[in-house]
Design brief:
- The complex is a heterotrimer of chains A (346), B (201) and C (558).
- Chain A has 346 residues and is of the alpha+beta class.
- Helix content of chain A is 38%, strand content 17%.
- Chain A has a 5-stranded mixed β-sheet.
- In chain A, helix 2 runs antiparallel to helix 3, helix 5 crosses helix 9 and helix 7 packs across helix 9.
- The radius of gyration of chain A is 28 Å and the shape is elongated.
- Chain B contains 5 helices and no strands.
- Chain B is flat.
- Chain B starts with 24 loop residues before the first helix and ends with a helix.
- Chain C is mainly alpha-helical.
- Chain C contains 15 helices and no strands.
- The longest helix of chain C has 36 residues.
- Chain C starts with 18 loop residues before the first helix and ends in a 10-residue tail after the last helix.
- Classes of the chains: A alpha+beta (346), B mainly alpha (201), C mainly alpha (558).
- Chains A and C meet through helix 2, helix 3 and strand 9 of A and helix 3, helix 7, helix 8, helix 9 and helix 10 of C.
């Protein structure tokens, strides 16, 4: 009993210390290890293969050099009581020096050839016909995704189809930036590519395995660089078709939330946001069509629950200080209306 | 631990060098300065070449008039400064002062011509440092060069004044030569800038 | 009353010297030894700030979702930490040590241009102060003032007027520009000294390895620093004159800044690490009791490294979208530079082989260097494999890599150098007991902080984020890293205590406490203002070995 009480007390003390320091957002974020050595895409595997190759070579070099070092430490230390005379002075040895220049050069050549080949395999900048092309636009601090083939625009959560040898449909991302340099990185799907203003970069994923994969911006882009998260949902072709159809549907006009819809269209919301079926066509902030189909808000800063949504609308700066959405200073009632309205955007 | 640092018995030594000649500090120092300034200019030259033809708007390269006279003046000033250095090395102070004056005058003409060129470009053609990419790279590259010409002219004028006040003698010829290296460097940079800005366009 | 020479050999007068006269003496000195010490002092001074900035960051990152630092403050700490450590700690370490040692090693009395030397120091220091003044701008110390928050490489267009309002970026530009001017002057001075002031008999093939490596280092400084100055002028013009160098709206290129920055930035990191090689090449032979193995190859390798380092810069840009041929070329050049670097490791190991190694403190630090720098080099090779870099770039793996280079390599060798040359500078030995505490504690702390960062990088943690979510697998690595900082801090405290305590209480060193072989050990500790009573004449690379072994001098074997 005594022990349990002690543990409880210590636990409570920890909570007391840590809770004020913990984030405002509620609910646990997804647990997923974005391990580059656990890839699911073709390019991810190619990278993993060459990575293990170079790690193997490096491990060998490490063992050899450190083995020699250890040997020197053990065998060639000055023993107490030795005569204090200096050992034979060896000025050099041409054969040895030539050998340890040539062997590393050979290793470098082999490594270089492997690298050159893998670069050629991965760095493709012309999408093939079968590919799904998605335009990715990096903003401070959120991601915009446009599907020209389907006329869909969404944000922060990328939905793509699987691509198997039988049903080959890789996704080619055309990367653009609205402002500064960002970097698109989903470790389990492959390497990263920077997103550079006035420059078009390409990244492609050929993923046979469905699932959800986490990533985030990897190039420092200002205050909220840490909260420019990415989720990639890889669907089977059927599921993907369903998702596309859902996104293409017009938003239902529910008369119960007319107040909220009107408020949304009358206030400054429409200056920044686009919402299908309304007059809102602002491009400064994310497109909110089918907003509730997304699992997170604020580019991953919080889960998309009604409580978090409410907190966000009340004061975005509390959840993501420095982000571009100002506190709109709405009344309680106004917040209620807007939240109710947004919750209907399935 | 510390052993005697004085040689014990007659130390076995190899045959001595007859002469121990080291390079001149001034020359090596000036060479280092020229090296570092060269990479400075190289970056501006690269920027200019990189942005050739990429301006989205504004006055294009056809508004630039090739400054032939000014270039001839500047490049001739390299010859006059060589003559000045030689005159000083022979102890002939009056010719030295005259050649220095010629060098400064020619450099001054170059600067004046640059000023007139810029006046025309800014007020008549609308090419400014903020107008477009061409303006950006043109003014910074030509401007930094002109800055270096100004510094060189100031140093030459300073030496001329010192000479007129009677402080310069034959033994200072090497120092003036080192200064002339800086002047030759400035001219060499002009050859590159001229080619890149007015010839390649 | 006789007056003792001060701890580092101030000019002795026959009357007691007032404190203000000493301050004036130091403030106006052109003596390379005093300036050398001042450079090291300034490096340690700024090291304290850089360490504080790092500590604040690591507290914020110890647990997920902490709110110890606001994001703006964290970003300022992140930028200032990098900028301070590279420009205000690394650079003065190398200039200070070269300033002090080179005239002594080549047998002359001072640098080629003593007054320029002084100007170089004070410009460097002024630049540092200007940079730190930024903390007092804006809102003042609350929220870290208007300190730069754009990262130490200040990528465009983040640094443009549009995205960097206020003057934080301007402090970054001007502070470094002024400091860089001082560095360029000192590099010019030292190159001229090495070429023009060598004592009789010291041809280039008889230069000590330290001096050779520093010569290459300073030529690199001359070539690589001005590109940064040029780029900074361009950025300044963009911000104040409306020019368009990096203005993507007007057709400018954001990548151009990266090219210019890294054309400076890559040689810069070689500029920072070459002194570690230079110190190692002096210390390892002396404590192994053997001449350095393969002097000629060491020199050629250094020259190759210097030369090749000018052609590898875009390996910092593998993710920016360069063409496959550009990526392939830079992969090749980066892999190539590993060869001469590895060669040096083998030469040092071969020097130790067959020796009678004394594990005094300089050698302990050098041994740690030989392990940690190899780790750093090997992770560098991994990063040169472009596709692997596409995963690892901008992650904590890179952070781990370069800290293993700069702390595991440079800082450890700096400590080795301090323990080795402090007796020469002050006339007293550093305490062995305190030194061991310093070494072992710092060794543990350093590896505890940066080892785990390889792990968080592999698990996808990007750089420069002020917080992270739980459940990504990064928690334990970050916690370990933060605990390691506390351990490192204790180690550093022991170091600083050692410097202070030993100045008064250390064992008297004499001229040559380590039984070494280069010219600085032939004069008193500390050396007189004029360095040598008579300028030496040398016949080999180890003049003092020749004097101690007149029957078996080096010149017969070189």
């Amino acid at each position: 009993m005594h022990q349990v009480l002690c543990k409880a007390l210590i636990g409570a003390l920890w909570m007391l210390v840590l809770m004020p320091l913990a984030a405002v957002a509620e609910g646990p974020m997804p647990h997923q290890y974005s391990n580059i050595f656990d890839p699911v895409s073709v390019t991810g595997h190619q990278i993993k293969d060459i990575s293990w190759f170079v790690i193997g070579i490096c491990a060998l070099i490490f063992l050899i050099t450190q083995g020699i070092l250890l040997w020197c430490i053990l065998k060639f230390r000055a023993r107490p009581g030795d005569d204090g005379r200096d050992p034979p002075q060896i000025y050099g040895s041409t054969p040895v020096e030539v050998a340890w220049t040539i062997v590393p050069m050979i290793i470098v050549v082999v490594l270089f050839l492997a690298t050159a080949r893998t670069i050629a395999e991965i760095q493709i900048e012309e999408p093939p016909e079968e590919a799904l092309v998605v335009d990715v636009v990096g903003h401070r601090w959120w991601w915009e995704f446009k599907y020209p083939e389907y006329g869909i625009t969404t944000a922060n959560e990328l939905h793509i189809p699987t691509s198997t040898p039988e049903n080959w449909r890789p996704t080619f991302l055309r990367l653009l930036s609205q402002d500064v340099i960002h970097s698109f990185w989903v470790p389990r799907l492959g390497g990263k590519s920077d997103v550079v203003p006035n420059k078009e970069n390409w990244l492609w994923y050929d993923t046979p395995t469905a699932g959800m994969y986490l990533g985030q911006c990897a190039e420092y882009c200002g205050t909220q660089h840490a909260h420019m998260l990415l989720r990639v949902y890889v669907h089977t072709p059927d599921e993907f078709a369903v998702w596309v159809a859902d996104q293409q549907k017009a938003d239902v006009e529910d008369p119960k939330v007319a107040a909220g819809r009107e408020l949304f269209q009358k206030t400054a919301c429409i200056n920044c946001h686009t919402l299908g079926g309304t007059v809102a066509n602002g491009t400064y902030g994310p497109d909110l069509s089918h907003f509730m189909s997304r699992k997170t808000l604020g580019a991953g800063v919080a889960l998309n629950t009604p409580e978090n949504l409410r907190a966000w609308i009340e004061d975005p700066q509390a959840l993501k200080p420095g982000c571009r959405m100002p506190n709109m200073k709405l009344t309680e009632l106004e917040v209620d209306h807007i939240v109710d309205y947004l919750l209907t955007l399935q | 631990m510390s052993t005697s640092t004085q040689p014990t018995a007659a130390m076995d030594v190899p045959p001595e060098h007859e002469e121990w000649i080291l390079p001149s500090k001034g020359k090596v120092g000036m060479a280092c300065l020229i090296l570092t300034e060269s990479t400075f200019f190289a970056i501006f030259v690269v920027a200019h070449l990189f942005y050739l033809g990429k301006s989205l708007t504004g006055p294009f390269a056809d508004v630039l008039n090739t400054p032939i006279i000014a270039s001839i003046c500047l490049l001739s000033s390299s010859l006059t400064v060589v003559m000045a250095t030689r005159a000083l090395a022979r102890g002939k102070l009056i010719p030295f002062e005259l050649w220095m004056l010629a060098t400064i005058a020619l450099g001054g003409v170059f600067l004046g011509a640059t000023g007139i060129e810029w006046w025309g470009l800014i007020y008549h053609e609308g090419l400014t440092i903020y107008s477009n990419l061409l303006g950006t790279t043109f003014y910074s590259l030509v401007g930094f060069h002109a800055l270096h010409v100004t510094i060189g002219l100031s140093m030459l004028a300073f030496v001329l004044i010192l000479c007129l006040l009677g402080h310069v003698r034959e033994e200072h010829a090497e120092r003036v030569e080192i200064l002339s290296w800086y002047w030759h460097f400035v001219d060499a940079v002009w050859i590159v800038v001229f080619t890149v800005v007015y010839v390649i366009r | 009353m006789t007056v003792m020479d001060g701890p580092i050999g101030t000019a002795s007068e026959t009357a007691p010297v007032s404190r203000w006269v000493t301050v004036h003496d130091w403030a106006t000195t052109t003596d390379h030894k005093k300036l050398g010490v001042m450079y090291i002092g300034a490096a340690l001074f700024f090291f304290g700030f850089g360490g504080l900035e790092a500590s604040l960051m690591r507290i914020q990152l110890a647990f997920p979702d902490l709110q110890f630092l606001a994001p703006e403050t964290f970003n300022r700490m992140m930028t200032m930490h990098g900028t301070t450590m590279v420009f205000l700690v690394g650079m003065p370490m190398l200039f200070g040590s070269a300033n002090y040692l080179i005239p002594l090693q080549i047998g002359c009395r001072d640098l080629a241009f003593p007054r320029l030397n002084s100007m170089g120091f004070w410009l460097f220091f002024l630049g540092g102060c200007l940079l730190y003044f930024s903390f007092l701008g804006g809102d003042g110390l609350y929220g870290a003032g208007t300190a730069p928050d754009v990262g130490w490489f200040a990528y465009a267009p983040l640094t443009g007027k549009a995205f960097s309002r206020g003057n934080s970026t301007d402090y970054w530009i001007l502070g470094i520009m002024v400091s860089g001017l001082g560095s360029t002057m000192t590099a010019l001075n030292l190159v001229t000294t090495i070429l023009c002031s060598r004592c009789r008999g010291m041809t280039f093939s008889k230069l000590p390895v330290f001096t050779w490596i520093m010569l290459v280092d300073f030529v690199l400084v001359l070539v690589a620093l001005t590109p940064l100055t040029a780029a900074q002028f361009m950025l300044l013009f963009d911000r104040f004159l409306g020019s368009h160098f990096f203005d993507t709206q007007a057709g400018g290129s954001a990548v151009l800044w990266q090219h210019f920055f890294w054309i400076f930035g890559h040689p810069e990191v070689y500029i920072l690490i070459l002194p570690a090689f230079a110190w190692a090449s002096e210390i390892i032979p002396v404590f192994s009791r053997k001449v350095i193995f393969g002097y000629s190859m060491m020199v050629y390798a250094t020259l190759s490294i210097g030369f090749i380092s000018l052609g590898v810069w875009a390996h910092h840009m593998f993710t920016v979208g360069l063409s496959p041929s550009a990526n392939t070329f830079f992969a090749a050049s980066t892999m190539l530079i590993a060869v001469p670097t590895g060669l040096k490791i083998f030469n040092w190991l071969a020097t130790m082989w067959g020796g009678k190694i004394r594990f005094e403190l300089p050698m302990l630090f050098s041994t740690a260097f030989l392990c940690q720098f190899v780790i750093a080099g090997l992770t560098g090779i991994m990063l040169s494999v472009v596709p692997f870099d596409w995963q690892l770039s901008d992650s904590y793996f890179v952070v781990a890599h370069f800290h293993y280079v700069l702390i595991g390599g440079l800082l450890f060798m700096f400590f080795a150098a301090v323990y080795y040359w402090y007796p020469k500078v002050t006339g007293r030995m550093l305490s062995r007991k305190i030194g061991h505490l310093h070494f072992w504690i710092f060794l543990v702390g350093f590896n505890l902080t940066f080892g785990p960062m390889h792990g968080s990088g592999i698990l996808g943690m990007p750089r420069r984020i002020y917080t992270y979510d739980a459940g990504r697998g990064w928690d334990i690595f970050n916690l370990m890293a933060s605990i390691g900082v506390a351990v490192q801090a204790i180690g550093i405290l022991f170091f600083v205590w050692n410097l202070y305590w030993s100045a008064r209480n250390g064992e008297e060193a004499g001229d040559d406490p380590w039984d070494a072989w280069t010219l600085e050990w032939t004069t008193t500790s500390p050396p007189p203002a004029y360095n040598f009573e008579e300028l030496p004449v040398v016949h080999s690379r180890r003049p003092l070995w020749d004097r101690k072994h007149p029957e078996d001098p080096d010149w017969k074997y070189e």
